[in-house]
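Bug #77: duplicate submission created two jobs. Keeping one. Sequence:
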Amino acid sequence: MTAPRVAIVTGASRGIGAAIARQLAADGLSVVAVARSGEALDALVARLPTDSLALACDLRERDIAPQVVAATLQRFERIDVLVNNAGATPRGDFLGFSDADWDDGFALKFFGAMRLCRAAWPHLVESRGCIVNIGGIGGRTGSAEFTIGGSVNAALLNLTKALADRGVREGVRVNAVNPGSIATERTQARIERIAGERGIDAAQASDELARQLRVARFGTPEELANVVAFLASDRASYMQGAIVDVDGGQTRTL
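Kept job's structure:
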């Protein structure tokens, strides 16, 4: 019997990451779920239908990525898929951000992903596996209130293209997904902030934000997870260096 494929999913304790972990497990993959929240990870892994592993750690620390790879190999002896989803970046006034804010913005979402790609790469070459980086549409379109996030996402998208170029030679597929406005806790917090500033209820604030973004509705984590699962599958075998916007049409530039 062929051993199940193995996927490392970062930022897996909630939201988009948890949805990706659930979908990949539903597709038969063993999942190594990585995040800082051990309790949430344990609860997630306990409900997955495949043999999976929870790893509570902070990918901002420089020596953690090799440890994640080593723990995965010790348990499953292979790595087939790496999904770099961890990392949230703040919105706000460019002039109000300190160097520490910028350092923290890049530390997890970019450098954490880069280090995991580097540590996992030889094993992905061996399995002819794939990487899916979760960026964000801010990496395509600049916004005055999203300078850190947009810069981080743009860097991650460029890394995706560069690794895809190497992957052509070495047999590793590397693609990226750009979420738009997805109905997660972060989006809900943004809606509640608008409601408080405008003195309106959450439903009105949600509708107003959707109108501002020129989308019909917010996406769900499950909709984004379906795209990631496709990119991680053999059905996407000819996709290399692709950047897929899952944003309800919010991005209108080429």
